[in-house]
């Protein structure tokens, strides 16, 4: 398929200025200020600092009211000296000069723009930036740049998949996936995960777990689902990854590593008449459909609980829970398993509740996991 780039305009560059409405309140947009600092640290490969800013943003987000003075942050966890300095500056001047400087930085702008494309990570973005490329047009017109299949799809459907997905759109997709999975295997188990399971109104994609009541029956199911979506003519892109899951391996300490379950990253076509209240549209777009990113993950049923917890997120919540398990309980867990280092054994988990019981914690509902 030939890439149509006529609609890429310079206005697609992001770069909202981060300022506050009131000089004396830390408002929602100041989490964005910390997010800019986190992102910039990520682009500079400073993972520790990136995490510190994300953690601080998540603490501020969880507060019941806006911060009105530096004193109000006393005793809060995870606010390091850099974050304190940002808050102080915003309280004093209504803005953070370091954040504004980053937002005006050419490299930051280019890397932010490039990594907004599905399939483009910080390394590729950096490579393109170093070649002197600054816009989508320049990338797509550069003969030496070989886009892979995922990146081509990322550009092709950029307008749709960079737009948020509404709850109604996620529900419509759930119906489609459910019908498809159950047409193939009526007793298969399907769960909507990710942000929508946490009750979020909007997301960037729609995540699902699929498994079967008996261990082993999940083999081959996903490929069958993919074929069926293809037959319905709604599959716009598919990357399938087979399982590399090894039940003897201890849970990983590396949070960023993807899990080893069989999965697929899809772009699916969703029609207007499938969504209650209609599709979200860009101005002037009269198409009867939009493209949406969908992830399907297939853990074996005995790993369903840990997979569900991991894929429900949020990233920050799961990262903190894993840290708590390691530091406070000498336990390791990831999407595959929960392991007790003291007893030197894997702990069996059938439900998410079991995981919290093993960790000696009260159950946390999905809607309370929006850290
Ligand atoms: P969204 O889609 O941006 O509204 O927000 P989420 O929370 O649905 O995020 P998403 O779709 O990127 O991923 C869903 C959850 O799955 C996320 O909360 C954490 C987990 N997850 C996704 N990718 C990875 C990964 O590469 N490693 C780990 N450990 N977890 C991941
Ligand atoms: Mg998601």
TrEMBL record:
Subcellular location: Nucleus
Any one Gene Ontology BP term: double-strand break repair via nonhomologous end joining
Enzyme class: transferase
Binding site for Mg(2+): 205, 207, 295
GO molecular function terms noted in the UniProt entry: DNA binding; DNA nucleotidylexotransferase activity; DNA-directed DNA polymerase activity; metal ion binding
Protein family membership: Belongs to the DNA polymerase type-X family.
Role of this protein: Gap-filling polymerase involved in repair of DNA double-strand breaks by non-homologous end joining (NHEJ).
Name this polypeptide is given: DNA-directed DNA/RNA polymerase mu
Organism listed in the record: Esox lucius
Name of the coding gene: DNTT
Parent-record interval covered: 95 to 465 of 465
